[in-house]
TrEMBL record:
SUPFAM superfamilies (UniProt xref): Glyoxalase/Bleomycin resistance protein/Dihydroxybiphenyl dioxygenase (SSF54593)
InterPro entries: Extradiol_RC_dioxygenase, Glyas_Bleomycin-R_OHBP_Dase, Glyas_Fos-R_dOase_dom, VOC_core
Residues passing through the membrane, by range: none
Protein species of origin: Salsuginibacillus halophilus
Database matches in PROSITE patterns: VOC
CDD domains listed in its UniProt record: PcpA_C_like
Domain VOC span(s) in chain numbering: 1-115, 140-264
Superkingdom per UniProt: Bacteria
Entry protein name: Glyoxalase family protein
Length: 308
């Protein structure tokens, strides 16, 4: 099984952009999301051939969660995971919500989280051509779970710099629950869980690991304000980065985890018809004159709408 097969055929997500790593155009950068590739629904992967497996440890983006509409959806997914032999645990509770932990084909730790009680950020829309159930399908990103050696340091970055609020956590089926932070409208799509694991070794990233987590900002003007905020707070950062589909800023929080601030637009339909997102290789303008040589080095991928 490969990345496209798992996320499109098993999880039923839409491939919303098939492009390349802008820093190494010889490999793919694949974006998955909801029907329109809405901000807050995007999960992305770099192709890195021959990379070794991740070694678990602290100072890590430990778990990424994906939203589904209801508690009943988790039963559907548990049965689907059994059919496709996807490693998974039992349905359990985190912050008062039902969740289903699982792993993808490379050992990437993930969870499906029910939106049944959500009263915050709205979810996206399930892809109409999803290979899984459109009734129970994935609608966006849920809480991000961080493991860090010093929770107070990450907490200060989240609250004093980025403007998150630490909130009273709900029920966790865990011996040591995390600290919970929320931003914006709150709810399932706007939370970060921080677990303190000071006795673990440092994580060593590899296959199944997460390189960075992105937080939404409205537009380029707001992003430039954040550049000033981070500079004034003494953080080293990337400065303004134009990714064509969005604008970004990268920095490491106090435990060394890489954070990205990314604008909601221009969006993935800036260079493709929204009805055909992800079906052809899309390149930013500065790489377009190299298209022939780039395509020659890439392994062709099937059309996820018509060939899978």
């Amino acid at each position: 099984m490969n990345n496209l097969d798992f996320y499109v055929r098993v999880l039923g997500m839409r491939l919303i952009k098939k492009t390349v790593n802008q820093d190494d155009p010889s490999v793919y950068h694949l974006f998955y999301g909801d029907e329109q590739g809405s901000a807050g629904t995007e999960l992305t992967f770099f192709e890195i051939p021959n990379m070794g497996q991740k070694y678990e440890g602290t100072n890590d983006i430990a778990v990424v969660s994906l939203r589904v509409p209801t508690d009943a959806a988790l039963t559907y997914w548990r049965e689907r995971f059994e059919t496709f032999q996807v490693p998974h645990e039992s349905i359990q509770t985190k912050n008062g919500r039902a969740v289903l932990p699982f792993q993808d084909f490379e050992g990437h730790k993930m969870e499906l989280v029910s939106d049944e009680l959500n009263d915050g950020v709205k979810a996206g829309v399930v892809w109409g051509d999803s290979k899984a159930s459109t009734e129970h399908g994935i609608t966006g990103l849920g809480p991000i779970q961080l493991k860090v050696k010093h929770a107070d340091r990450t907490a200060r970055v989240l609250t004093e710099v980025l403007g998150f609020k630490e909130i009273q956590a709900g029920t966790f089926d865990e011996t040591t629950p995390p600290r919970v932070f929320s931003t914006g409208q709150g709810g399932t799509g706007a939370e970060v869980y921080v677990y303190e694991t000071e006795n673990e070794p440092m994580v060593r990233l590899g296959r199944g690991g997460v390189h960075h987590v992105a937080f939404r900002v409205t537009d380029e003007e707001e992003l430039r304000q954040w550049i000033r905020v981070l500079t004034n707070a003494g953080f080293s950062h990337s400065g303004f980065v134009d990714r064509h589909y969005f604008r970004s800023l990268y920095f490491r929080e106090a435990n060394g985890i890489l954070f990205e601030l990314a604008t909601d637009g221009p969006g993935f339909a800036v260079d493709e018809d929204a009805a055909y997102l992800g079906e052809a290789l899309a390149l930013p303008p500065f790489l377009e004159d190299k298209r022939a040589s780039i395509e020659a080095r890439l392994t062709p991928l099937p059309n996820p709408r018509t060939e899978m």
